[in-house]
Design a protein that fits this description.
Elements: H1 4-14, H2 18-25, H3 29-44, E1 48-52, H4 58-67, E2 72-77, H5 80-87, E3 94-97, E4 110-116, H6 125-135, E5 136-147, H7 155-175, H8 178-190, H9 195-202, E6 208-214, E7 219-225
Parallel strand pairs: 1-2, 1-4, 2-3, 4-5
Antiparallel strand pairs: 5-7, 6-7
Helix pairs in contact: 3-4, 7-8
């Protein structure tokens, strides 16, 4: 699990350059990954959606464009500076500072909960997933987008070299916060992926889960469904 004090401080320091840095470090692939999630979410036709760990609102904006005005979007994050950037965006959403481990929403309030590159940085993954399950309606979905480790030989080694040797230095030049990205790079190694993530999701409130690898497994989408009411 992660150090919430360090993570909160790190995101506050990089908020102003977070969007640009993400695009540079992923060579623009993060935009395509979020669009893929947005199309998937649009197919679920949610009326109420929570984008948790919304950060600067990148995924929430992509989802808003894909689903149209029929979906009420709430963006929640524990970093107020990140939400200040999100509030400057030009689409309609309710923004609030909230802790993913203690969400201020009623049971079953949302049709879909999304979290992009956020679950990995939470202090207690099982507790966070249980809380996401609590606020998801029976039959609703959790959609997680996060980094994973490629399984292909060669690509896996090259990615790890980039992750630990190149990414922190480049991010340090862009944000002045190299230590934050060294920490975040390390979290990718520890974060469960593939079948292990599916098992984590189904062990803590969801009935089934599937993994969708992206870009050779550099990132993955996980779609978990909460059991329907009897």
């Amino acid at each position: 699990m992660q150090d919430p004090v360090f993570v909160k401080d790190a995101f506050a320091k990089i908020a102003g350059r977070y969007i640009l840095t993400n695009h540079v470090l992923s060579l623009g692939m993060d935009i395509l990954w979020r669009r893929r999630v947005a199309r998937l979410v649009a197919g679920l036709q949610p009326r109420r959606l929570l984008d948790l760990a919304t950060g600067t609102g990148d995924l929430a904006e992509a989802i808003s464009a894909a689903v149209g005005p029929g979906c009420a979007i709430t963006g929640a994050d524990f970093s107020a500076p990140m939400l200040e950037v999100a509030r400057a965006r030009s689409f309609a959403a309710d923004w609030m500072v909230a802790d993913a481990l203690d969400l201020p929403f009623a049971d079953g309030h949302f049709d879909v909960v999304t979290v992009a590159f956020g679950l990995r940085n939470m202090a207690d993954w099982p507790a966070a997933i249980r809380e996401m399950a609590r606020v998801t309606r029976p039959g609703g979905q959790l959609v997680v987008l996060d980094f994973s480790l490629p399984t292909l030989p060669g690509l896996r080694e090259a990615y790890r070299f980039y992750l630990h040797r190149v990414l922190p230095r480049l991010a340090g030049l862009l944000t002045g916060q190299r230590a934050a990205y060294e920490y975040l790079s390390g979290t990718i190694e520890r974060f469960p992926s593939g079948a292990a993530m599916g098992e984590l999701l189904t062990a803590h409130g969801f009935a089934r889960a599937e993994a969708i690898p992206l870009s050779g497994g550099i990132a993955s989408i996980y779609v978990a469904t909460k059991a329907a009411a009897d």
